[in-house]
Amino acid sequence: MIKLCYIDGQFVKPEDAKLPLSDLIIQRGVGVFEAFASFNLKPLMLTPHMTRFVASAKASGIANIPDVEFMKKIVHEGIAKVGHDVRIRTFLTGGDYFDAEKGYFPEPRFFVIFDEAGLITPEEREHGVILEPVSFGRDNPEVKSVDYRATYKMPAGAYEILYCPNGEITEGGHSNFFLVLQDGTIVTAPLSRVLKGTTRSIIIELARQEGINIEERCPLWSELTSATEAFVTGSIKMVVPVVKIGGITIGDGKPGKITRKLFELYTKYLERWLE
Prior knowledge:
It is a single chain. The protein is α+β, with helices and mostly antiparallel strands and about 280 residues long. It has helices spanning about 25, 45-60, 70-80, 120-125, 200-210, 255-270; strands at about 1-5, 10, 30-40, 40-45, 85-95, 110-115, 130-135, 160-165, 175-180, 185-190, 215, 230-235, 240-245, 250. It folds into two domains: about 1-115, D-amino Acid Aminotransferase, Chain A, domain 1, CATH 3.30.470; about 120-275, Alpha-Beta Barrel (D-amino Acid Aminotransferase, Chain A, domain 2), CATH 3.20.10. Helices cover about 25% and strands about 25% of the residues. Strands 7, 8, 9, 10, 11, 12, 13 and 14 form an eight-stranded mixed beta sheet that branches. The longest helix is centred in the N-terminal third of the chain and has 15 residues, at about 70-80. The model has no long low-confidence stretch (mean pLDDT about 95).
């Protein structure tokens, strides 16, 4: 449920937030976004999210991007106005036209949605989730585009899709993917192939602090049957155990000890990354 919006330079009720039909986010799907949560009324990894937000916009040809410090200020003000922890989604649209001569969208619209956090359920955390593999990869993985149509193509009971092009595994529909091998090594796709996940960075840092070996390469589909654990990470979901991918059960079909340990460390040190 949306609690509050920021658009056209002001905070408004959801029912009063409007975009014109001429905006290219509506007509052509031109737009980028970020999604993250607040904890103790402080946004998580705000600076990395805003840095990625700007990079996505530039890579999409969106110009005249608002100042980062201004956008961060709006995020803080919105959380304070709602008065409790929320999910925050920042958007930059393509605006009303594309300047073909200059090759960019010169008048983007910036808006922010503050809504219920929608965190993972205790049951999903305790028992793990199922991912649905698809045989293709995400277009322009370095850009967090608003085009998420592919992520809805999955059967009932699946938590999200898993991109598996050409026998490799890159990322989840809304998350970064990690596979734990029999020797305890964690494998996750390199940043040249996937979105630079903020939670991904935290988990890699925590794992290395624990002496866990990290390989930044694409896990192979052929490695699933011998893997002991798998999990996905994201700004809202944190760390989610994966117990089945398509028809393949991971390990013993239960959340593994490394996954649980990393989630415990993540929540223990969460304050480090609140801004």
